[in-house]
């Protein structure tokens, strides 16, 4: 599995970070079924995970562009504590 986290440059508020997670399957023999991403943040922050685009990834095919699961993560740090 290959995971890439794209962090947006712009945000709706200074205390919010919006990111897009993209997951691709790099395995040429096994598909991924029922994939579920979870994340945790410190108590002083909040996280909201939007629904993923799908939960299934076919096997990697070098001839075709890889399919990806995408999911939006919204993290807020209202107290701006590191």
From TrEMBL:
In terms of PROSITE patterns, this protein maps to: GAE
Membrane topology, as annotated: Peripheral membrane protein
User: Protein name, please?
Assistant: GAE domain-containing protein
Keywords in alphabetical order: Golgi apparatus, Protein transport, Transport
Ranges for domain GAE come to: 1-82
- Where does the source fall among the domains of life? Eukaryota
- Broad class of the protein's primary localization: membrane
- Intracellular or extracellular location(s): Endosome membrane; Golgi apparatus
């Amino acid at each position: 599995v290959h995971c890439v986290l794209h962090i947006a440059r712009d945000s709706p508020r200074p205390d919010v970070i919006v990111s897009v997670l993209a997951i691709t399957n790099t395995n040429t023999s096994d598909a991924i079924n029922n994939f579920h991403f979870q994340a945790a943040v410190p108590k002083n922050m909040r996280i909201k995970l939007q629904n993923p685009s799908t939960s299934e990834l076919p096997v990697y095919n070098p001839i075709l562009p890889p399919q990806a699961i995408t999911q939006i993560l919204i993290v807020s740090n209202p107290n701006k504590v590191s």
